[in-house]
Write a structure and sequence with these properties.
Elements (H helix, E strand, L loop, with lengths): L13 E3 L2 E3 L6 E5 L6 E6 L3 H14 L5 H4 L2 H17 L1 H12 L3 H19 L9 E2 L5 E9 L2 E5 L5 H15 L2 E5 L6 H13 L6 E3 L4 H9 L6 E5 L2 H14 L3 E5 L5 E4 L5 H13 L11 E5 L3 H13 L19 H16 L3 E4 L14 E4 L6 H4 L6 E7 L2 H8 L4 E2 L1 E5 L3 H10 L4 E4 L14 E2 L2 E2 L6 H4 L2 E9 L7
Parallel strand pairs: 7-8, 7-10, 8-9, 10-11, 12-13, 12-18, 13-16, 15-16, 18-19
Antiparallel strand pairs: 1-2, 3-4, 5-6, 6-22, 11-21, 14-15, 17-20
């Protein structure tokens, strides 16, 4: 796939009612390439006034006799499939924009485009398959249930997987017939705006999908508290998730689904192949520069193989290439911005201060951009901050354990519960752990195996609701019960 490190963004305005328009305030903000610190372009800065316009457009598009509401399910399928075709056509552009805006290696950005297409295709197949029931209630009554779209939905997505999170949100909402107001992360707005252009080209009716770029405290808050938004979906941090819930409760008690942080345990038993386990654990943590909510950020290794594992994990981390994300040899690009760069380095300092052993890494790479060396700590204990708090960077923490019962208790001893993994050849151990760990997804002898058809979401502070799979549709559906009395007619 041809890459273009200097692909020019064609779309920098808000997308409302199928038109690109400036913000009401005419303000703009810079989106910056984290690998170079250079401004890529300036994007329209939307706020409450723009969200009001976008919601009004989405509300009109959802009216009972609108073109969107009168479409058959398979017509929605056709539109979604056409959008996927346009994404495939523009794959190189989407991937190049993603790499510039986010910093992830170009090859990974291409995979994200493919996965986004797969997700939308999966949900395109659901447009006519969410069904109600016939409920037995008595001799002279007939009761049926209908599944209906909730209406206008607000969607607020993060910067770590910009295009992929868009697809996760759009897919089920479009499948069931909702209309959308999307706010991409202010750090990574470019692929969402390009997707908006493809929405219009595919032929979606005006107002069905709207994209408002801007900042969380203004545009994001306006979506969360808007009285005409019936459901809000948010992926991001726990503190902001709480604000979204509060705004939803104080406005119109809109539905809320939250996919928040994680501190996911990956457990390696002594019967596992150590080389295999090292590779799985390495990718579980360092993939996407460690900027993943379900990263395997707590690596627990059985005491019998601990020293061997640490030695090989350190060698693996030292071999990981960091640099220009458009270089085919590079596996790790920069952190997203200076705030996250500083946060990660501060956690590395905290780990050293608390007594964890820094095995490798821990420093900045180069003088330009937000690059950090792949970092490995050993001798980490559960009470350390690096064991309890989400670092969101390329920092692997390795713990030692002895027994199955012990590791289940320790794995659950955090406020998060998004994901977990286990590597073992003992099926009974694997299932004992999988059934006992507090996590929405558990992977056995693999990690991060997230597919469009597999529900994803967390326990505890990791959020509420599920995305992907059939479960992902439920966030966007209301259940209506219809009961009719049947009159027994007698013949004359």
């Amino acid at each position: 796939m041809a890459k273009n490190p200097t692909a020019e963004p064609k779309y920098t305005l808000l997308f409302i009612n199928n038109e690109f328009v400036p913000s009401v305030s005419n303000k703009k903000f810079a989106t910056v390439n984290p690998a170079t610190n250079n401004v890529i372009t300036y994007v329209a800065e939307g706020d409450k006034a723009d969200v009001d316009k976008a919601v009004a457009a989405a509300k009109k598009a959802f009216q009972r006799n609108s073109p969107w509401r009168k479409m058959s399910p398979l017509q929605r399928t056709d539109l979604m499939i056409k959008l996927c075709g346009l994404m495939a056509r523009d794959k190189a552009t989407l991937a190049s924009l993603e790499t510039q805006d986010n910093g992830k290696p170009y090859a990974e950005a291409c995979l994200d485009v493919d996965y986004s297409i797969d997700t939308l295709k999966y949900y395109a197949g659901w447009t006519d398959k969410f069904c109600g029931d016939t409920v037995p209630v008595g001799y002279d009554l007939v009761t049926i249930t209908r599944k209906e779209p909730v209406g206008v939905v607000g969607q607020i997505i993060p910067w770590n997987y910009p295009l992929l999170m868009l697809a996760w949100k759009w897919g089920p909402a479009l499948a069931v017939g909702c209309t959308i107001v999307l706010k991409p992360a202010e750090q990574t707005p470019l692929t969402a705006l390009h997707m908006a252009a493809l929405v219009k080209e595919a032929g979606f009716p005006a107002g069905v999908i709207n994209v408002v770029t801007g900042f969380g405290p203004t545009a994001g808050a306006a979506i969360s508290e808007h009285p005409d938004v019936q459901k809000v979906a948010f992926t991001g941090s726990v503190p902001v998730g709480r604000l979204v819930m509060e705004a939803a409760a104080k406005s119109n008690l809109k539905r809320v689904s939250l996919e928040l942080g994680g501190k996911s345990p990956l457990v390696v038993f002594d019967d596992a192949d150590v080389d295999f386990a090292v590779n799985v654990a390495h990718e579980a943590l360092f993939s996407n520069h460690g900027q993943s909510c379900c990263a395997g950020s707590r690596t627990y290794v059985h005491e019998k193989v601990y020293d061997e594992f640490v030695s090989k994990a350190v060698a693996k981390a030292k071999s990981r290439t960091v640099g220009d994300p458009f270089d085919d040899k590079v596996l790790q690009g920069p952190q997203i911005d200076n705030e996250m760069f500083t946060q990660v380095l501060s956690y590395i300092d905290i780990g050293k201060e608390e007594g964890a052993k820094l095995q490798c890494g821990g420093k900045r790479v180069g003088e330009k951009g937000f690059f950090i060396e792949p970092t490995v700590f050993s001798d980490v204990t559960d009470n350390m901050r690096i064991a309890q708090e989400e670092i969101f960077g390329p920092v692997q923490s390795i713990f030692k354990f002895s027994t199955v019962e012990e590791i289940i208790e320790r794995a659950n001893n955090v406020k998060y519960g998004l994901a977990a993994g286990v590597i073992t050849n003992d099926l009974n151990k694997a299932m004992q752990y999988a059934q006992s760990v507090d996590a929405g997804s558990v992977w056995i002898n693999c990690y991060d195996a997230v597919l469009p058809q597999t529900p994803f979401g967390g326990y505890k502070n990791s959020g509420m609701g599920r995305e992907l799979g059939k479960d992902g549709l439920e966030n966007y559906l209301e259940t209506k019960t219809i009961t009719m009395k049947v009159f027994n007619q007698t013949s004359d």
